[in-house]
Amino acid sequence: MGLHFGNLARVRHVITYSLSPFEQRAMPSFISHGVPNVLRRFSSQVLKVVPPFVAAYLLYSWGTQEFERLKRKNPADYENDQ
Predict the structure, then answer these.
(1) Where are the alpha helices (DSSP H) in the chain?
(2) pTM recorded for the entire structure
(3) Measuring CA to CA, how many Å separate 39 from each of 24, 49, 51, 58, 73?
(4) How many Å apart are CA 47 and CA 1, to the nearest integer?
(5) DSSP code of 4?
(6) Is the pLDDT of residue 69 over 80?
(7) Contacts of 27 (CB under 8 A, 6+ apart)
(8) Of all residues in the chain, what percent carry a pLDDT higher than 90?
């Protein structure tokens, strides 16, 4: 009836290793190596990421203010209405 799901293909010359979950350490040196690595990565990328976001925010806020300004009626157009 065909091959079972685990034996669909024969792979030769491939060595696989596994480690028991009880032998693994879930977060080895998370504080001592992880936090400095995050800070290093953040500081190296902040100058590439922040300026486009700041420019987009300034453009959006300017466009919103300009739209609200242009949406208002001109009081000089209605001075002589009685």
Answers:
(1) 35-71
(2) 0.55
(3) 26, 15, 19, 27, 51
(4) 60
(5) -
(6) yes
(7) 34
(8) 46
